[in-house]
Amino acid sequence: MKILFIVLAVVAIAAALSLMLFAESAPPVGSIAPEFTLPSQEGAPVSLKDYRGKWVVLYFYPKDFTTGCTIEAHNFQRDLPQYEQKGAVVLGVSVDSPDSHKQFCTKEGLNFKLLADSDHNVSRQYGSLTNLGVVKIAARHTFLINPEGKIVKEFLDVNPNQHSAEVLAALAELQH
Known about the structure:
By secondary structure, the protein is α/β, with parallel strands linked by helices. Helix content is 38%, strand content 22%. Strands 5-4-3-8-9 form a five-stranded mixed β-sheet.
């Protein structure tokens, strides 16, 4: 009986933590991607609808200038010509400011758009907002959106070292 109580307590704690960490779930594969407009590192508004007719790699990442996020961004930058050959654009989203994104792009030589979700609304819509108590950051999630605006693939368990190659492979498979 005591073991059953302990197991139930652990399950209840795990459920509460998962609700606290990921308040909303990601939109399901096959659904229309939630529309948004966010400022880029240049301060100009960027809307998802601007990319209808193209494949979109929408990737959420925790923080500019951190190790994993820098590796992930470098790999997307390295592979940018391959994305362009496939008619795809890469859009990065975090809760950092446009100015932070501008500094990050300049320092790291990034030529794709980084979008500032400072009010957390887009990260929340995509089930990609992590609540760390006093701090909220974007979770490392990626959504592959087809030219019609549908989510066709989700990556919710991302390794930044291999992620760009993984997304390119999925894109190749979906396009053929």
